[in-house]
Amino acid sequence: MSKIKERFEKYDLLERAKQCSFKQFFLAPPMQASGVLIHQLLLRKVKSQNPVELQFFIGDSNLRFGLGEFALIMALNFVKDLDVVKYKSILVA
Q1: Cα–Cα distance, 55 to 93 (Å, whole number)
Q2: pLDDT one-digit tens code per residue, 71-84
Q3: Which of 5, 11, 25, 90 is 20 to 30 A distant from 69 in Cα terms?
């Protein structure tokens, strides 16, 4: 994300980018991903009946990560009843 921010600053577009619907990415502090954590999650991934969600078997529970969780983490303004067909293109892109 820092490289993207640098490019926007180079062309003096950072303020304009902060006005768009993806402003949370430009305002957020730098993030670090834990490769070990991601690897351990992928080792516990189970096949899901729903193609737009991920499921993990952790402990004695199946945990799911779907559109609702994605919207919550990314601070997107999703409505209460998600229309999977409408937002499916977002996840594929």
Answers
A1: 20
A2: 777 766 666 555 55
A3: 5
With a cut of 90, say whether residue 43 has pLDDT above it: yes
Assigned token pair, 75: 């601070």
The per-residue DSSP string of 51-68 comes to: TT-EEEEETTEEEEE-HH
The pair of three-digit structure tokens given for residue 18, joined into one six-digit string: 């902060």
Tokens of residue 92, six digits: 């594929």
Q: How many residues belong to the chain?
A: 93
Contact 44, 58 (CB under 8 A): yes
Within 10 angstroms of residue 52's Cβ, the number of other Cβ atoms is 16
Bridge-based pairing state of the strands 54-58 and 61-65: antiparallel
pTM given for the model? 0.48
